[in-house]
Amino acid sequence: MAKRSFEGPNDQTDNKKGSPQPMEMERSAAATTKTASNMRGSLLTLLNRPSPFANEMGTLPCGEFEPVSLATHKTTSALDFWTSVETPLSLTKVLVVGAGGLGCEILKDLALSGIRNVHVIDLDTIDVTNLNRQFLFRQADVGQSKAFTAASFINKRCPWMQVTPHHGKIQDKNIDFYASFSCVLSGLDNIEARRWLNATMVKLVQTDEDGDIDPSTIIPLIDGGTEAFSGQARLILPNLTSCFECTMDSFPPQQTTFPLCTIAETPRRPEHCIAYALILQWPKEFPDKKLDKDSAEHMQWIHKKALERAETYQIPGVTYQLTTGVVKNIIPAVASTNAIISAACVNEAVKILTYCSQTINSYMMYMGSATGIYSHTFEYQKLEHCPVCSQTVIQLHTTKHQTLREFIQIHLTGGASSLRLTSPSLAASSGTTLYMPKPPALEQATRPNLDMPLSSLIADGEEVTITDPLLESTAITVQIHFE
C-alpha cells in the first residue's frame, strides 16, 4: 500500500529560504491530522487512501480507483465532508426501483453512504401490514404513495439527501429515464417486473462500428430479492456478466408467494385475491379460530371472499382449485433478511461507483434458518442462448403437424423449458405476420393462423422474430426446424 501523505491547504513559505516556517508546518500538520481523525469510522477511511483490494485487481475489474484527497478540505466531521465535498458518491445519480421492504432499507443505506442524488419509483401505496418492517412509514401514512412517503422521510431526516419520488409503473418510464442514472438498484417483489427492467438495461448498451461494446453505455444493475429467511444480491453488468434472464431456470415456472403490500393494496392476479382472503380477512373474521387447510368448509369460505375481492378489482380466474393451491404457499416477509440483502446491494453500489474495492462476481446467496445462516458467492455463467443478452439465433425443433397455438404454448409461454413469455407476437422473416395479440384488429386478422400447422405458415429452417411486452422491446430471433 502506498504511504499516505497530507498537505496543509494554507502552507506558507519563508521569504528567504523558500521553506515552510516551523509554526505554520505545525499548524498544517495538526489540521490535517484532525481532519483524518474525524474521517475515521466512515467510508472516507476507504476512499481517501490507496487500497491493495481496489476494483481493478478483482475478478471483475470495471475501473481504476483514485483516492479522494483530503488535503485541501477543512472538515470537522464526516457529515460535514459528505455535505460539502465532491466525491464520486456525491456526484452520481442512482435509481431505486421499489420502495417496499428492500427499498426502504436501500434508501436508508444510500443516505448513510453519502449517495445524495437518488430517485425512487414504486406503484404501491402503504398498507397497515407494511408497518412492521418498512420503517420509513407510519400509521398516518397508510393509503399514501410509498415512493413519495419514503422520499419525504429520507429528505427530512437526512438534509444532505435529494430523493426524487416517482409513483407509477416502471414500464411507464421511457428508456431515456433509465439512461440518465449511473447505477440502478432493484428491490422488486415479482419476477415479471425484474425481467422487464433487466431487458431495458441490456437495451441501453451500445456498440461501435466494429461491434465492440461502448463501456460508457453500461449501467450497472444491482438486483436484490428475499423470501422469508433467504435472499440474494447480484451485480449485473449488461452484456458483460450474466443477466437476470440468464438465470430464469433457477426460478419456478409460476410465482407461488406474494408480498403483503401487493396483496393488500394493488392486487393484479387471482392469487392476490385469494391471499388477501387468507391472510387479512380470515384472522379478522375468526380471530380465535385457526384455518384448517384440509377443511372443505374453510376453503369454501376463502374461495367466496376471494371471488368477492376479484369482482371488485375485475380480476378473472379465481377458482376453487386455485384457492386450495395458493393457501399452502404463503411465506411471510422478514425484516432482518431485507436489512442484510439491502446492505449487500448498497455495498456493491458503493464499490462499483467508486472502484474502491472489488465487486462480487456476480451472485451472492444468503440462506438463514432456525439452525444457522450460510452465505455463498459465485459467478453465474452467461446463458449461451439467452433471449435478452446473447444476441444469437435460438434453434427450436418441432413437428410438421404442430399448430401455431401449440408451438406458442409449448415453446414460448409454457413451463420451465419454454421462454416463459406472456403475450408474444410472431413475424416470419418472409414478411408474414403469424400472430399479433394486439391491437384487437390485428389479433382478429391473425387468429385463424393459431389453428393452422406451423409448417403451412413458414418454411423449414425459416427464422421468426418474437417480441413480448414482458421483455420491453427486445426482439428474439428463433430458427424453426421441422422433424
Outline the fold blueprint.
Blueprint: H1 22-39, H2 44-47, H3 78-84, H4 88-91, E1 93-97, H5 101-112, E2 117-122, H6 146-157, E3 162-167, H7 175-179, E4 183-186, H8 191-203, E5 221-227, E6 230-236, H9 260-265, H10 270-285, H11 296-312, H12 320-327, H13 335-354, E7 363-369, E8 372-378, E9 394-398, H14 404-412, E10 425-428, E11 433-435, H15 440-446, E12 463-467, E13 476-482
Helix pairs in contact: 5-13, 10-11, 10-12
Describe this structure in words.
The chain has 483 residues and is an alpha/beta fold. The protein contains 15 helices and 13 strands. It has helices spanning 22-39, 44-47, 78-84, 88-91, 101-112, 146-157, 175-179, 191-203, 260-265, 270-285, 296-312, 320-327, 335-354, 404-412, 440-446, and strands at residues 93-97, 117-122, 162-167, 183-186, 221-227, 230-236, 363-369, 372-378, 394-398, 425-428, 433-435, 463-467, 476-482. The strands form two sheets. The chain has an eight-stranded mixed β-sheet with strand order 3-2-1-4-5-6-7-8, with helices on both faces. Strands 9-13-12-10-11 form a five-stranded mixed β-sheet. α5 (101-112) packs across α13 (335-354) and α10 crosses α11 (296-312). The chain is globular, with a radius of gyration of 27 Å. Mean pLDDT is 85; it is low at 1-19 and 25-32.
